[in-house]
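Ticket #4471: structure output looks truncated?

Reporter: J.K.
Steps to reproduce: submitted the chain below (171 residues) through the standard prediction queue, then opened the result file.
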Amino acid sequence: MPTPDTESLFVSELTKAQVKMRVYLAKLLANSPSTDDVLQECNKVLWVKRDDWDPETIFLKWAYRVCFFQVKAYFRNQSREKLVFNDELLDILGKDDPAEHNPKEREIAMNQCLGKLDNHDRALLLERYQGELSVDQLAQREGISANTLSQKFLRLRHQLLICIQTNLKTL
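Returned output as attached by the reporter:
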């Protein structure tokens, strides 16, 4: 049976974790409209199992595991849906660590990596993802096929991903 102090700490940790749990669930559920429903189920399970939580451990890691299994249960119940992640993909997506870098660190790393691209590639990427032109429109302007430009964007995004991951390791 939890003491009043332990229960108060649990409520505090659960409250602080809500935003991160929702983001984690949204990732696993591909931003499904059911994210809030699954979050509510997770909160119920966490409350029922509150005696199992050790205050000496990181609450968010425990909460993420509960969320992960609630998503699996949700997908089992939604098997009639057309698009449902298989267990292998869910396992890959579920390997999220609450100690991950915050969005500001990611933004800094992204800006550093964008600065390493040549001016034309950077301008092209920014125009595509911040502007309103489609790949077809940009390709026509560049005098290349849309497929060629799509492949270029794929290579540039991969290059940025590697650079960002490297930069985040040093932060």
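Triage note (M.O.): checked the attachment and the full token line is present. Residues 103-170 form a domain with the Arc Repressor Mutant, subunit A fold (CATH 1.10.10).
Status: closed, working as intended.
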